[in-house]
Amino acid sequence: MSARKRGRGAAGEAASQPAAPASAAGAAATAARPFAALTPDAVLDATEALGLAPDGRLFALNSYENRVYRVGRVDAEPVVVKFYRAGRWSDQQILEEHAFAAELALDEIPVAAPLLLAGTTLHRHGEFRLAAFPLCAGSAPELDQLGARELLGRTLARIHAVGARRRFQYRPTLERALLGARARASLLRSELMPEHMRAQYATVSATLVSGIEAAFADFGAPALIRLHGDCHLGNILWQQRGPLLVDLDDCINGPRMQDLWMFLSGNPDEQQGQWAEIVEGYRQFGSIEYRELRLVEPLRAVRMLNHAAWVAERWTDPAFPRAFPWAAEARFWEGYVGDLMNQCQALEEPPLLAGNL
Predict the structure, then answer these.
(1) Any alpha helices (H) in 264-295, and if so which ranges?
(2) How far apart are CA 311 and CA 190, in angstroms?
(3) Could you tell me which of 245, 221, 104, 241 has the C-alpha nearest to residue 161?
(4) Which domains does the chain have, with CATH numbers?
């Protein structure tokens, strides 16, 4: 008996389930619940197949799109094992993400890069694709600490300097298809949208998508580079030397502001102060043009549209109703449409950060 089987707790045994039936109904159920077969036993078996000698200790980490676990090992440091959602990314896209992380790490930029095992970073075990990462220690970032935003800006500029060397070949590019139109169409098809809000959402979202596309058209041909793509506080660990970025799962080609605007919050004065600190650090390794500031509100609008559609599209995954229970309530959608109306107005206003370059 292996060390990890001796160490397995009751949770692993209780969660064991028979395989899904090989039928059309079973295939549909698997598509709706793509991680139904990912029991603790399956996670440990996959980790063992990678040669990482799990000891039976297993802890699920916060993740919705994929499934991520901290796995204890025999006489070695724990690892983080990530199982990719079926059908979302191709193997080429995942490997391109991994290569970008490795390139950043080679330049001594603090990121979580996947482990190279048996000559590759992407592995298969049964129906699942997975990758293993070193366990990175760190705490939640507190950007109000002295110098924290400046250090974050410096780190992001270094990432963008590497990202500007070439573009992704297989990863998405932030362009019209991803600027809200696809998300809008998806949400209009969703049963999660209350019927009494559907017409109002259709009108407001159409206005917002039009405004987003007009803003990008006015911006002109942007300097698109490889980006983290989903750069927010939840994807940062703060270490003694500063920020370490994790989860490059949404890395894309896009404008630099995509990795910067989400660190701004509060009233206009607060956002201007936050931006001044970030830019102070960013200027040490990069630069921002005035025209790029005009993308802050359009990018915020894109995220508002895409996030709601993402929740609706994933609603059959049991993790989503648990994490976003308010999405089943009509009052959420009423407030959401009101927020979209306010965002339409924000697109018409001058850039909030104009005086901070």
Answers:
(1) 268-282, 290-293
(2) 10
(3) 104
(4) 8-134 (3.30.200.70), 148-347 (1.10.510.10)
Active-site choice (55, 144, 230, 317): 230
pLDDT higher at 291 or 344 = 344
Residue 20 scores a pLDDT above 90: no
Res 265 pLDDT > 90? no
Q: Are 251 and 229 in contact (CB under 8 A)?
A: yes
Catalytic residue among 45, 55, 247, 259: 247
**Does the active-site annotation cover 250?**
no
Structure tokens at 46: 């996959």
Residues ≥6 apart with Cβ < 8 Å to 203: none
pLDDT of residue 354: 59
Q: What region, left, alpha or beta, does residue 53 occupy, with left being phi > 0 and alpha being psi -120 to 50 degrees?
A: left
The amino acid at residue 218 is D
Distance in Å from the first CA to the final CA of the chain: 63
Task: Please give the Cα distance from 133 to 114 (Å, whole number).
Answer: 5
DSSP state of 124: E
Confidence of residue 11 (pLDDT cuts 50, 70, 90): very low
Does the model's pTM come out above 0.90? no
Structure tokens at 207: 């206005």
Task: Give every CB contact of residue 267 below 8 A, 6+ residues apart in sequence.
Answer: none
Which helix (DSSP H) or strand (DSSP E) does residue 26 occupy? helix 24-32
> Facing residues of 125 across strands?
128
The reported pLDDT for the residue numbered 96 is 98
Identify whether 269 is a catalytic site residue.
no
Q: Can you spell out the DSSP letters for 56-99? A: EEEEEES-SSSEEEEEEETTEEEEEEEEEPTTTS-HHHHHHHHH
Instruction: Pick 200 or 34 by higher pLDDT.
Output: 200
Exposure string over 252-268, b if 16+ CB within 10 A, otherwise e: bbbbbbbbbbbbbeeee
